[in-house]
């Protein structure tokens, strides 16, 4: 091959391979220069990789949460078409765990199974004798403090199922007649039950607002925690953006107001800045 053959930008092969066309001297990087360059690349990678990995995980969380919410909403629509709205199901509202009798708990379990869970693709309904659920998970608040230990088989208040996509769904009936009022919209004026969704099942970090999200099941549909119409308990400001609190009034955890934000804005920027709001910034870079 002709070493003087011109290639891109008019350089010859000799020039590309560092051979000076006039004096024949060869030019190359020294070992020190190579090591310095590699060191700089390593430092930059070490600084950027954790951020890139976290962003990718957050994107996966957004997609998984939206997918699970879609599954739940479709099942709910089928449920009310065939069985009527939840206020007609004969549910028993939660009082406290020790006040709910075994008969009441079993009746609620059966009612939820027959009127809602059967429309979901589940691998297991979590109840006494369940082998696939094995629910004994310790969760944390969004701020990292310990929250609660979920032991469905020994807590009569929670009804739970494991979905085919790996998510865990917990339901606790708040009002059998769907008369709980937690917000200004029609749906939030007719709340039937609280709903907790762990989007990756038994895998960590088992933290509210990161892989564990709150919803409410209402007479008119399922509403994600932190919806703009919440006025108590699961507001975005108090139960997601503000991470200084632990358990909020009414026994709702810090982090319970994040689900609506994740799905609507497709980000988890509340983890990275504290000046977001429905009426203002929707991401940290705004």
Largest sheet: 6 strands, antiparallel
Q: How many distinct beta strands?
A: 10
Q: What's the order of the H and E elements?
A: HHHEEEEEEEEHEEH
Strand order of the largest sheet: 1-4-5-6-7-8
Helix content: 25-40%
Radius of gyration: 27 Å
Low-confidence sequence ranges = 1-5
Query: How many individual domains?
Result: 1
Shape: elongated
Class from secondary-structure proportions: alpha+beta
Number of helices: 5
Strand content: 15-25%
Mean pLDDT: 81
Distance linking N and C termini: 56 Å
What does the secondary structure layout of this molecule look like, with pairings?
Blueprint: H1 13-16, H2 31-83, H3 102-115, E1 122-126, E2 137-140, E3 146-150, E4 159-163, E5 168-173, E6 191-198, E7 212-218, E8 221-224, H4 236-241, E9 247-248, E10 252-253, H5 259-265
Antiparallel strand pairs: 1-4, 2-3, 4-5, 5-6, 6-7, 7-8, 9-10
Descriptive notes:
By secondary structure, the protein is an alpha+beta fold. It has one domain (67-271). Helix content is 29%, strand content 17%. The protein is built from five helices and ten strands; from the N terminus they run αααββββββββαββα. Strand 4 and strand 5 form a beta hairpin. The chain is elongated, with a radius of gyration of 27 Å.
In short:
This protein has helices at 13-16, 31-83, 102-115, 236-241, 259-265, and strands at 122-126, 137-140, 146-150, 159-163, 168-173, 191-198, 212-218, 221-224, 247-248, 252-253.
Describe this protein with a few key phrases.
elongated, 5 helices, two-stranded antiparallel ribbon, alpha+beta, single chain
């Amino acid at each position: 091959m002709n070493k003087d053959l011109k290639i891109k930008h008019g350089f010859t092969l000799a020039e590309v391979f560092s051979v000076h066309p006039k004096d024949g001297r060869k030019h190359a990087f020294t070992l020190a220069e190579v090591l310095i360059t590699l060191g700089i690349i390593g430092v930059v990678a070490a600084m950027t990789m954790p951020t890139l990995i976290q962003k990718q995980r957050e994107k996966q969380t957004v997609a998984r949460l939206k997918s699970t919410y879609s599954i739940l909403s479709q099942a709910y629509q089928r449920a009310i078409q065939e069985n009527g709205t939840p206020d007609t199901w004969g549910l028993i509202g939660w009082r406290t765990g020790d006040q709910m009798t075994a008969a009441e708990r079993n009746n609620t379990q059966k009612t939820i199974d027959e009127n809602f869970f059967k429309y979901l693709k589940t691998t297991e309904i979590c109840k006494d004798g369940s082998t696939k659920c094995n629910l004994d998970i310790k969760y944390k608040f969004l701020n990292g403090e310990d929250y609660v230990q979920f032991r469905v088989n020994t807590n009569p208040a929670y009804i739970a199922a494991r979905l085919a996509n790996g998510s865990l769904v917990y339901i606790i009936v708040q009002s059998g007649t769907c008369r709980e009022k937690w917000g200004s919209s029609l749906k939030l004026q007719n709340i039937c039950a609280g709903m907790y969704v762990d989007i990756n099942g038994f895998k960590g970090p088992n933290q509210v607002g990161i892989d564990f999200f709150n919803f409410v099941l209402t007479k008119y549909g399922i509403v994600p925690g932190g919806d703009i119409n919440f006025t108590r308990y699961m507001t975005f400001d108090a139960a997601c953006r503000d991470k200084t609190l632990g358990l909020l009034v009414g026994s709702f955890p810090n982090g319970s107001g994040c689900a609506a934000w994740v799905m609507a804005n497709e980000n988890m920027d509340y983890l990275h800045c504290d000046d977001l709001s429905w009426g203002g910034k929707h991401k940290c870079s705004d």
